[in-house]
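hey so u asked for the seq, here:
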Amino acid sequence: MIFHLSLIVVLSLFVSQCYSACAEVDSMTEAVAGEGFLLGCISCKRREEVAARATVDWHFKSLGEEEFRHIFHYDHPSAEILHEDFSNRLEWHGTQNSDIQIGAIYIHNVTFNDTGTYQCILQRTLFLELADEHVTVEKEVELSVVAVANRELTAVIAEIMMYVLIVVLQLWLIVVLVYCYKKISAEHEAREARKALKDQAALLESKDNCDGVQLE
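ran it, structure tokens below
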């Protein structure tokens, strides 16, 4: 869970800084009591060159209830918590301008009463040449709150693969270093051998010259 939550946070920050790389990532669905939790809501524009403005509303329906309660409203730059159960616990973690593509909110100090269905409604106005177009996007997140985080199989596999990759890279680096060392050492020995042969040849030539002078 920690692995996926980190992934969502990184993607959200990346998308908010670079709209051309917007990717609609689903929100996590399991929170741990007493900790914080990011409710994800991403709706990418299909045409990035079109200017737009959007507002985001979050609604909550707890287990056993039939109707949603309006808990949060964001209209850049204003964020408003609308229900006392979430007072001082909700924080905007979405796009920091009026052209919203990320409508994520962060819940501080999650409680078991936060278990239920969360509905994100993004209302976007596209400013087109002929006429403005209004688009409404709705996403729901079924959130369950647990006492202890359950490590998902994908997170465990990802962690194992990370360690395996680190070990493989270290072994590969050792092999490369040994290969380079042997290659450099062989070249050095070859240079020394060629130098020794040249010195020996020069010595023999000098000796021959000396013998010739003595004979004269």
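The first helix runs from residue 2 to 17. The chain has two helices and nine strands.
lmk if thats what u needed
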